[in-house]
């Protein structure tokens, strides 16, 4: 009975971390982007401001603007990919996938389109089809580090972390110290509950000049998961409005407090059965 209880607690802890990871991705998307699809700029408007740097109001405006452009020309590769990316930023993954399906039909041999299509499939929860699409887009003689990293992220979601980490390291061999890959590697360890390893990789990622908001939000998440809420809020405050950063950390505190209460109950139950 004790072993069964221990396994249950372990599974519960992994599920808890996965749930908080999903929360962290959703919250950071409001200011930056988990979806992991793109940090590119949105065409049109007054600037070429990167999606990762947009706030909620700017993302909503860009969604309307690019949506109108997509309606006028749904076969345009650049517009379609931008529209799918920003839809994912807004949590509209099913619609983003539908857009990328149309773009892929118009550009069936374009590896860039296939890669974005695979990422849209993954964001919509279609993990095995996403894996197949990403692998189809890859060129073995000249491997693309971005596709290796994307494949790794899908494998992590399929609970195949060793395969995922091998791909991240291959990507880093091609693109040393790439912050997005280091971040994915860190989050791979987070998903398995190894928070110190996750923090090590994320700190290295954040130290890179090209690190974007998503990477720093992931580091804030890991700090919070280790109970360092002040540090987590300080990191998050550099990316979000102060009130939102505080709200995120308060929510994380609440989630962890609830999980600790459930763990205490599980411990008592284990003691009672021994």
From TrEMBL:
The keyword GTP-binding belongs to this UniProt entry's keyword annotation: no
GO molecular function: identical protein binding
Stored PROSITE patterns: PROKAR_LIPOPROTEIN, TPR
UniProt keyword annotations, A-Z: Repeat, Signal, TPR repeat
Key word Heme present: no
Ranges occupied by TPR repeats: 145-178
Protein name as it appears in the record: Tetratricopeptide repeat protein
InterPro entries: TPR-4, TPR-like_helical_dom_sf, TPR_rpt, UCP035836
Stretch forming the signal peptide: 1-31
